[in-house]
Amino acid sequence: MSIEVKNVFKYYGEQAALNDVSFKINSGEIVGFLGPNGAGKSTMMKIATCFLTKSSGTVKVAGLNVENDSIEIRKKIGYLPEHNPLYLDMYVKEYLEFVAGLYKGRLADGTKFNKRERVTEMINLVGLEKEQNKKIGALSKGYRQRVGLAQAIIHDPEVLILDEPTSGLDPNQLVDIRQLILNIGKTKTVMLSTHIMQEVEAICDRVIIIKDGQLVADDTKAQMQQQGDAKQVIFVEFDKNFSRNQLRQIQGVNSVKNVDGNQWLFSSTEADIRPAISKFAQQNDLLVLTMRIEEKSMEDIFKALTGK
Ligand code: ADP
Q1: Cα 47 to the chain's mean position, in Å?
Q2: Which of 19, 62, 130, 299 has its CA 20 to 30 A from that of 255?
Q3: Is 3.40.50.300 the CATH number for 3-225?
């Protein structure tokens, strides 16, 4: 288990920013940590990275306890905080060599690395070749994010915690950085917070949603898309036109919407209406050219779980 959070509370004065939060993240998972502004995402990430102490509960990262093993945990994790604090007057390469020095030339698993070689490797990995000799202050937001990611992974951490890693990036940079996170996620545990639902759809295996400091969902993306109010929506294309009124007679169908020509959307509160649709088509001499379950978007799910 890479991150284990059990019954965690965090109070800022009277306010409970985290209210009995529990979840687990396994090695090799990319988990999206979602919630509206002020839900407690950054607070949770700061606690898991040992930047902030919790009020109560247990937090283990890479098998170590945040209270007793804070320094050991920091050696094993990579962290990109929300506002990506960087030394703007340092040059990209100089800064990354400085960070490599902080880890005393050792990767998270203890093996030694050559500082210069490792920095070159990171620069190539995150695509900073052209910018490596520039001052960080002269870089665009997207390139600064790349520097932030490079410093987070320079010591090859087991666990990567990224607080809104793609906020403010342009669409091309978004694609690059997401691909990079996906590649890193093949071998690491990644916990990332984001506001962008397409991002969750694009890269996360599992989603944890918090609202007002409390966990409201923890599921795989696929499971989450299937649950909710259990309403099933089926897209069907027949070979010819048919009367809507007759299609509404299909057993279990609550509503029928015409998409275009012979294409229809059937919705139902029943478990699965596909067999009934197939049977109906057969009986009425209709051919089913396409039939698929329309997945709910993460955006719909997020709204349903966190809306007022
Ligand atoms: P998120 O990252 O989901 O936007 P945060 O963890 O930043 O949420 O904040 C959760 C809640 O805790 C918010 O209501 C915020 O105002 C409050 N909060 C965060 N940091 C502090 C702090 N240092 N002092 C007082 N309240 C804070």
Answers
A1: 18
A2: 299
A3: yes
Nearest CA to ligand 1 atom 14: 38
Give residue-wise pLDDT tens across range 211-257. Answer: 999 998 898 877 776 655 546 788 999 999 998 889 988 988 888 88
Instruction: Report how far apart, in Å, the C-alpha atoms of 92 and of each of 84, 103, 119, 129, 178 are.
Output: 14, 17, 10, 10, 21
| CATH superfamily assigned to domain 228-303 | YebC, transcriptional regulation domain (3.30.70.980)
Please give the model's pTM, rounded to 2 decimal places.
Answer: 0.80
Which residue puts its alpha carbon closest to atom 20 of ligand 1?
Answer: 43
Residue that the structure tokens 């990171």 belong to: 122
* Residue pLDDT, tens place only, 52-109: 999 999 999 999 999 999 999 999 999 999 888 999 999 999 999 999 999 998 999 8
Name the DSSP letter for residue 287. -
Work out the number of other CB atoms within 10 angstroms of the CB of residue 92.
24
Ligand 1: residue whose CA is nearest its atom 15:
38
Task: Indicate if ligand 1 lies below 6 Å from the C-beta of 40.
Answer: yes
Find out whether 28 and 187 touch, Cβ atoms under 8 Å: yes
